[in-house]
Amino acid sequence: MRNIMLTVEYDGTNYCGWQTQPNATSVQEIMEGALAQMLGEPVRLHASGRTDAGVHALGMAACFQTDKTMPLRAFREGLNTLLPRDIAVREAREMPLDFNPRFHAQGKHYRYTFLLDDIRSPLTRHTAWRLKGKLDVEAARRACAEFVGEHDFAAFRASNCAAKTTVREIYSMDLTQDGRFLYLDVRGSGFLKNMIRVIAGTLVEVGQGKRTPEDIRQLLEGGDRRASGQTAPPQGLCLMEVFYPEVGAEPDPHPARRKPRRARDLEGEGT
After folding, report:
1. Closest CA to 254 of 107, 100, 147
2. Which residues are tagged catalytic?
3. What is the tally of structural domains in the chain?
4. pLDDT digits (tens, 9 = 90+) for 228-260
5. 110 marked as part of a ligand binding site
6. How many CB atoms sit inside 10 A of residue 159's CB?
């Protein structure tokens, strides 16, 4: 038996999210269908996590087990001939049988993209949140620093979030501007449902002068979702990367404080 990990890129616009759901089309459903067609047997994918409807991914990690002996390149190339144009396998590599992409993940990197423009942009409507008017980027950047570290993020999650604990650690949070685009890059141990989107919505309110950077600490301490900002729309969010330790190495509790080991640095065929 082999344990194959796929790194998947997808445009989430037309999907209900990664995870299979009744009466809606998911990325997982499409992926499992393509795998079953290629391998001639039912396949179950186990992913590093979930993404919501409309959210994108550059580096979603998902594993399946098979006894097929085909080379790793064949998994990637074979699947890409069967998948729709908005889903692609970037990498396929073999992992130990006990490897689980969710439980062995050391952290994740998400990026939220804002478009600062008073005029709508048809080309970015599925990949960015357009903000009209002026935004105090420096104030929003100062607010980012308040999120870094281990905190209770109860005030920054969806009302229907089922997580047993709301304590998470953010390793780094950076806000960078490139012309009309503003990028929020967040690296952390893990994230609650809608956590990045609520953070993004709250940062926008700081930039609009509706809150101060110092308000963030009070929101974290208060734990009241009703007191924090709006949930940013899904199209601006993208799962960039999932961090894993070297096979056989002890977990690094702070993967973002060193040069991250990208998926292609793990064993298996390179990108």
Report:
1. 107
2. 52
3. 2
4. 999 999 999 999 999 998 644 344 445 444 433
5. yes
6. 9
